[in-house]
Amino acid sequence: MDTLERGRAEATVLHYVPAGKIVRVVFALNERTDRARREAAWDAAGERVAGLLRKHGAVAFATIGDPNVYSTFTYLAQTVAEAVPDVVVETVPGSPPCRISRRVPGPC
């Protein structure tokens, strides 16, 4: 269920991308008891992104922090790859929170 609350990643992207080019996908992040509902939300988001990918040839998914650590990105990428088998997924990591909190370069 979309609460229409703007997340941090969306707010950040809005500084650089016109609102008309942003498509919100909804995940059931707080769903802890109904795994089927949570997975259905991931699948629906993946299918939405796959449709946009087929239509436009490229899409981007913004997240705060490292997309491969505690992120919805891995679920989304898996679903999109199943729906569009020839897709090339490129991950452009940001700064993992563990590195930011330590304020030192290098891996966590």
Automatic annotation (TrEMBL):
Residues 7-94 form the Tetrapyrrole methylase domain. The keyword Cytoplasm does not apply. The keyword Nucleotide-binding does not apply. Transmembrane segments: none annotated. Keywords: Cobalamin biosynthesis. GO terms for molecular function: methyltransferase activity. Pfam families: TP_methylase (PF00590). Signal peptide: none annotated. GO terms for biological process: cobalamin biosynthetic process. This is Tetrapyrrole methylase domain-containing protein. Pathway: Cofactor biosynthesis; adenosylcobalamin biosynthesis.
